[in-house]
């Protein structure tokens, strides 16, 4: 009896042990933490790769390669021809794509291997690059972490502050297959001694670049998408016609929280209509003028000014989106949910239909906190 119990315990332990037949030694693996796609002057595909080096004998701890290839998978084979380790894509942090590529080529076929091969990372960040991708791949920041980690942290911090959009490969695939919206991604640029977040790059349903949103517009897009993680920070210019001193610009900065959002969807006279209403609570974090905010009358006056400015900025953003026939907000999802009969007739041409829709936005601001100082 004891012998059988002992055998069962041994079998149980063997089953629970983690196998290591497929172990990979770091010295024999090239971890492609950053991958870049660009076009040369003849519109041939350029694939870049940046990887850490784990050899103690190596003086340079980073490998950077750039080669001509027809696909990403072929580039991995070509990378292995010049490297002492074989390339692994399962740890990729960021995929950089130049605006030149996005303007001239359909990007979806190039991404097929990333979706199809389960060994590849689907949580990598999709990033559009203003200028050559090689400028970022070859950038070695002196006072920052490794570039691959730095890029990931840079985008994540910008997303936290609502000045760009974080889009993973998995999310990008959803956007490209979902008929009720158009895809987008973060946008960065290599400047003299730094990499700067520019905002958000907007693509059409075919994957071509259509327009860019700056930092302020990206924050408004995040607000419209109801993607709140932290309070939104807005600096609003204000004007008092009856003020004695109108020579100096007056601004007020708010930390804004979305309390409630409603989207009313209608279809009248062959046109979709979307009424977007938001209730916002705000805390004043800065003001550059004298104002008695403890007075209810003055408080209502400043709230009205803030509402007017936010409505104006959002209206300009919506006009821009319609002009370029892109719907990163996903209003097509509301059209399908509430006006399905009409949606069925236009689902294949939703971006064009969206460009002709009637969009109305209204913000209602309630200042809850005026800060620690009177």
Automatic annotation (TrEMBL):
Spans traversing the lipid bilayer: none
GO terms under biological process: spore germination
Spore germination protein N-terminal domain location: 22-189
Pfam families, per the entry: Spore_GerAC (PF05504), Spore_GerAC_N (PF25198)
UniProt keyword Membrane present: yes
Domain of life: Bacteria
UniProt keywords, alphabetically: Germination, Lipoprotein, Membrane, Palmitate, Signal
Alphabetized InterPro entries for the sequence: GerAC_N (IPR057336), Spore_GerAC-like (IPR008844), Spore_GerAC-like_C (IPR046953), Spore_GerAC_C_sf (IPR038501)
GO CC, any one term: membrane
Protein name: Ger(X)C family spore germination protein
């Amino acid at each position: 009896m004891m012998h059988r119990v002992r055998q069962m315990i041994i079998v149980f332990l063997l089953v629970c042990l983690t196998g290591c037949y497929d172990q990979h030694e770091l010295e024999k693996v090239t971890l492609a933490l950053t991958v870049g796609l660009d076009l040369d002057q003849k519109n041939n595909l350029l694939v870049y790769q940046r990887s850490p080096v784990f050899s103690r004998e190596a003086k340079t701890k980073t490998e950077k390669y750039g080669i001509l290839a027809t696909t990403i998978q072929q580039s991995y084979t070509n990378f292995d021809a010049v490297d002492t380790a074989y390339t692994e894509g399962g740890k990729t942090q960021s995929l950089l794509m130049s605006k030149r590529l996005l303007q001239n080529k359909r990007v979806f076929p190039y991404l097929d291997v990333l979706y199809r091969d389960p060994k590849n990372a689907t949580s990598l960040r999709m990033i559009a690059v203003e200028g050559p991708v090689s400028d970022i791949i070859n950038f070695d920041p002196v006072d920052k972490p490794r570039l691959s980690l730095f890029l990931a942290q840079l985008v994540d911090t910008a997303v936290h502050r609502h000045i760009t959009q974080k889009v993973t490969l998995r999310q990008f695939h959803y956007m490209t297959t979902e008929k009720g919206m158009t895809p987008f991604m973060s946008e960065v640029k290599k400047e003299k001694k730094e990499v700067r977040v520019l905002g958000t790059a907007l693509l059409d349903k075919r994957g071509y670049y259509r327009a860019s949103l700056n930092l302020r517009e990206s924050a408004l897009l995040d607000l419209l998408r109801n993607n709140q993680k932290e309070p939104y920070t807005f600096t609003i210019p204000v004007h008092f016609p009856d003020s004695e001193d109108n020579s100096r610009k007056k601004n007020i900065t708010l930390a804004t929280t979305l309390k409630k959002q409603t989207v009313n969807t209608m279809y009248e006279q062959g046109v979709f209509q979307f009424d977007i209403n938001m209730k916002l609570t705000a805390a004043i974090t800065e003001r550059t003028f004298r104002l008695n905010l403890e007075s209810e009358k003055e408080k209502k006056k400043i709230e009205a000014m803030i509402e007017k400015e936010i409505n104006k900025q959002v209206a300009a953003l919506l006009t821009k989106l319609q002009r370029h026939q892109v719907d990163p907000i996903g209003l097509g999802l509301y059209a399908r949910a509430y006006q399905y009969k009409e949606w069925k007739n236009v689902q294949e041409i939703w971006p064009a239909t969206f460009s002709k829709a009637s969009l109305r936005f209204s913000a209602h601001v309630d200042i809850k906190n005026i800060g620690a100082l009177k």
